Amino acid sequence: MRLVIVTGMSGAGKSTALNYLEDAEYYCVDNLPVQLIKPFAQIAADGASSEFTKIAVGIDIRSGLPDRDLTEAFDDLEAAGLDFEILFLDSGDDVLLKRYKETRRTHPLAGKTGSVEEGIREEREQLDRMKRRADYIIDTSKLLTRDLRQELLRIFVQDREYKNLYITVQSFGFKYGIPADSDLVIDVRFLPNPFYVDSLRALTGKDKPIRDFVLGSEGCGVFIEKYMDLLKFLIPNYISEGKNQLVVSVGCTGGRHRSVVLADEIAAALSADTEYGVRAEHRDIDRDPGRR
To answer: 216: number of CA atoms within 13 Å, CB side?
Structure first.
């Protein structure tokens, strides 16, 4: 039997994760009282020949129990010889606040004041020990629902190794500002600019003529090779420091040509060479190229 405890910050995607696990043929129970986890798991484990071979149990702060009681419940599971894994879904405070404002929901710990910010702060404090105990931490701050689904399938269906790090490689234009969420920023304006080629100006880095132009530029291949070496050195060190979300920003002047090509190339190379979750996104690709 495989038992997965799904928990994390309210608004980080727990319900969505449970829906995806249910689609993957997990028997899912949401908001199960903590006191019932052990007897429920024992019943499922005793029925080894039953359909309960894959189970996901959702637990969140609505249980009303302090974090120490939640971790004590997990100690009881271990003492009973029951194997389980903890999936912790997290997200940045600013993202959680935005999600609550968009849905107009009340945070479960907002209390009489109704302050979502205060509720998020208190919940993060209460779940700190739970997060440190988690086997998998997925930060959904920048993930689309399909990205979350892909990560869950990798971990809980394909059984691929997961290293608690999701990498976003994003292209941008310096003329519109450096993305505020960047962890690493690389400037690729040393490469020839397709903007100055009349037949290429209106295209983007998703078009083959632009890709051929950029990737065929002198020094481009050497740059990709050396930058990948740097990332392969940095990523394990970020993981050892507890980082679970890495944003690599690749910038050119307008964010439509060179940076798009290089961001896609770096993301593809990372996906092929690592077990990390990787996605590419392009902030400024749809902006009007204009003229200079």
So the answer is: 7
14 with 122, same domain: the answer is yes
Q: Rounded CA gap, 212 and 116, in Å?
A: 49
Could you tell me the two tokens for 165? 């790090």
> Is the residue at 128 inside a domain?
yes
DSSP 134: -
pTM: 0.71
Count how many domains the chain has.
2
The reply to whether 15 falls in a domain is yes
182-215 burial string, b = 16+ CB within 10 Å, else e?
bebebebeebbbbbeeeebbebbbebeebbebbe
Query: Residues 202-214: pLDDT tens digits?
Result: 999 999 999 999 9
- Give the position of tokens 């050119």: 252
Residues 134 and 211 grouped into a single domain: no
Domain limit, last residue, from 138, 156, 174: 156
User: Which segments of the chain does DSSP mark as H helices, in order?
Assistant: 14-23, 37-46, 67-79, 93-103, 116-126, 128-133, 145-156, 208-215, 220-240, 258-273
Does residue 68 have a pLDDT over 70? Answer: no
> Left if phi > 0, otherwise alpha if psi is -120 to 50, otherwise beta: which for 22?
alpha
7 and 119 fall within a common domain: yes
Q: Which residue has the tokens 């105990």?
A: 133
Flag whether 292 is in a domain: no
Given a cut of 80, is residue 71 above it in pLDDT?
no
Amino acid in the structure at residue 236? P
DSSP 188-227: -TTSPPGGGSTTTTT--TTSHHHHHHHHTSTTHHHHHHHH
- Tell me the residue range of the domain where 116 lies: 2-156
d(CA 153, CA 150): 5
Domain boundary among 156, 175, 209: 156
DSSP 40: H
